[in-house]
Amino acid sequence: MTEKALDVVVVGSCMTDLVSQAPRLPKAGETIHGHKFFIGFGGKGANQCVQAARLGVKTAMICKVGKDFFGNNYIQNFKDNEVLTDFVSQTSDEATGAASIIVNEEGENAIVIVAGANMLLGKEELQEALPAIRRAKVLLCQLEINPQTSLQALQMAREHKVKTVFNPAPAISDLDCNFYTVSDVFCCNESEAELLTGCSVADVEDAHRAAQELQKRGCSAVIITLGSQGCVVLKAQESKSIHVPAAAVTAVDTTTHPGFGCHKGFCGACVLPAKHVIPPSCFPAEPAAVSVVSLTV
What we know:
Layout: E1 6-11, E2 15-21, E3 36-42, H1 44-54, E4 59-66, H2 69-80, E5 83-84, E6 88-91, E7 98-103, E8 109-114, H3 123-128, H4 130-134, E9 136-141, H5 147-159, E10 163-166, H6 178-181, E11 185-189, H7 190-197, H8 204-216, E12 221-225, E13 231-234, E14 242-244, H9 258-270, H10 285-292
Parallel strand pairs: 1-4, 1-9, 2-7, 4-5, 4-6, 9-10, 10-11, 11-12
Antiparallel strand pairs: 2-3, 7-8, 12-13, 13-14
């Protein structure tokens, strides 16, 4: 199947979310009773990959999980969503990545993430996946795995004239400058844009300025998501950015911060028109709007 063209290849993370809901967050050393528990499939890369697959494109995931119960379940989840799993590798050296999440009645949370097998994804796995990368229309990366692995994947895609989408999350202040020059679409949220540029991004006007600054660093197109305010889009080879409003929604559940799922679903949707380098004017805000009203994202 990897000999056939793929629409989207995602290089990134898989996290099993262990979510407990309780009236409040416990204090240090305290045990409290919760009222709901569930296990979900998370991880920035996996969320983006599954979102793209659910939108109907041929999608492959390049990642690493543990040889354990969670890893086996994650591979099956990819298959259930028609994601190609030829390059989902398993290791006995680390457990599948996991996030322990406690959420109170106000939607505030406390999270502990153990990256585990995600951090073992490296050059060897990328070389093995080269047949998929070079046949892709778009490659998507983030920073929840070793940053150098993401950078190498983007560089490999560029070498084979594959369009690249980079989501710098979780953001790091000393981001390697090469990430900008290998990104056809640089997609981040307001807090990530603020950390990367050193400038406040509190509203749409701030986002316009931040997009200009990010594009000056070498990326072709920039998208800055702004939650309920929509997003700002700076197209490739254009000097003026545009604001795309978001659809008004009512959140039906505050299990986790909406940004965890909907921003990643947004990035998954971005890859559909990425072969044209930037999306039509109104596409970006809709996947986030749909995700935020779901019970889980």
